[in-house]
């Protein structure tokens, strides 16, 4: 399967871009969605969390108390490391399984931490959705109703704009209007269809 990795900093418009590809019938494997479901009730990840912290890690309905866990790993770096060691392999397995099951002409792997978590190794091409830091700040503050400091902290924790652009095979500039964005996606869709055909014919 021909895999296009899509990434971009917070507020860059990654989801808008992947939705446009989806309208062309392309399957999207979303690392964020997978990461959220890893902690679902009845799963091995949640069992491991309860084993380590007891029932205080749970809400009354038996689901993960995300706020409690966030607070915990914020204050204890060793807990953050433990959680990453637990969840990253499970997330990766799920990503691989979904990529293999994809039935579209090519498949998109959407991941905010595509570069940081070395998921680029799973991709034939890397597409970066790029905006300025000022745009990131403005859009995220409006969307999530959070302070500039909070957004800035997230931006600082992600790969830098330079690192992302260095890893990119293709770049979508998302500072313009919807028509401009749609046209960039259409051009890349045609390109990826051609590249996917080439890959199939050589295998």
TrEMBL record:
Pathway where it operates: Cofactor biosynthesis; coenzyme A biosynthesis; CoA from (R)-pantothenate: step 5/5
Residues bound to ATP: 11-16
GO cellular component, one term: cytoplasm
Catalyzed reactions per annotation: 3'-dephospho-CoA + ATP = ADP + CoA + H(+)
Keywords carried by this UniProt record: ATP-binding, Coenzyme A biosynthesis, Cytoplasm, Kinase, Nucleotide-binding, Transferase
The enzyme's E.C. designation: 2.7.1.24
PANTHER family: BIFUNCTIONAL COENZYME A SYNTHASE-RELATED, DEPHOSPHO-COA KINASE-RELATED
MF term (GO), any: dephospho-CoA kinase activity
Task performed by this protein: Catalyzes the phosphorylation of the 3'-hydroxyl group of dephosphocoenzyme A to form coenzyme A.
Listed SUPFAM superfamilies: P-loop containing nucleoside triphosphate hydrolases
Family (UniProt): Belongs to the CoaE family.
Main subcellular localisation: cytoplasm
EC class: transferase
Subcellular location: Cytoplasm
A GO BP entry: coenzyme A biosynthetic process
UniProt lineage: Bacteria, Pseudomonadati, Pseudomonadota, Gammaproteobacteria, Alteromonadales
Name of the featured protein: Dephospho-CoA kinase
């Amino acid at each position: 399967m021909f895999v296009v990795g899509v990434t971009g900093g917070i507020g860059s418009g990654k989801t808008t871009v992947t939705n446009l590809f989806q309208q062309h019938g392309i399957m999207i494997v979303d690392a964020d969605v997978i990461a959220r479901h890893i902690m679902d009730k009845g799963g091995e990840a949640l069992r491991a969390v309860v084993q380590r912290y007891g029932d205080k890690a749970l809400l009354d309905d038996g689901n993960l108390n995300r706020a409690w866990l966030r607070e915990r790993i914020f204050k204890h770096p060793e807990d953050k490391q433990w959680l990453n060691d637990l969840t990253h392999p499970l997330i990766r397995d799920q990503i691989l399984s979904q990529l293999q099951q994809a039935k579209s002409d090519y498949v998109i792997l959407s991941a905010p931490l595509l570069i940081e978590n070395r998921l680029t190794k799973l991709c034939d091409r890397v597409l970066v959705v790029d905006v300025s830091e000022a745009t990131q700040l403005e859009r995220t503050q409006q969307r999530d109703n959070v302070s500039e400091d909070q957004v800035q902290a997230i931006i600082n924790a992600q790969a830098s704009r330079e690192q992302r652009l260095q890893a990119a095979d293709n770049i979508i500039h998302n500072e313009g209007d919807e028509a401009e964005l749609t046209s960039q996606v259409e051009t890349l869709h045609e390109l990826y269809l051609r590249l996917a055909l080439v890959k199939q014919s050589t295998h």
